[in-house]
Design a protein that fits this description.
Elements (H helix, E strand, L loop, with lengths): L9 E2 L1 E2 L11 E2 L1 E8 L4 E6 L1 E2 L1 H10 L10 H9 L2 E5 L5 E8 L2
Length: 101
């Protein structure tokens, strides 16, 4: 994984755990039109983000983030086994995901 590269474009992807412990994913998105104009069913598209700003924000919040700069690193990031930790209070927390070895 790497550092933010000013020559690249970035998307924000989170991999939180659902309340029942299943891994889910989320991303920032924007309106991209309607699938059905009459019903107003929205189409959404992934939004580009300012990688430097978002990385700095995570650091200010004392949260971890991973910067992925190429397809090989993305594949490695997405296929590593995730180990879900339980916080001291006994509840699962989405921000307590770590990578297995």
């Amino acid at each position: 994984m790497g550092r933010v590269d000013a020559t690249k474009e970035y998307y924000h992807l989170t991999l939180p755990a659902s309340p029942d412990g299943k891994l889910v994913w989320a991303t920032f998105s924007h309106f991209a039109g309607y699938a059905d104009e009459q019903r107003k069913d929205e189409l959404r598209a992934d939004s580009l983000v300012d990688g430097r700003w978002l990385s700095d924000l995570y650091q200010q919040l004392s949260e971890r983030c991973v910067v992925v700069n190429n397809d090989q690193a993305l594949h490695a990031f997405l296929t590593r086994p995730l180990v879900s930790l339980v916080c001291r209070c006994g509840r699962r927390r989405a921000d307590h995901l770590q990578y297995g070895k």
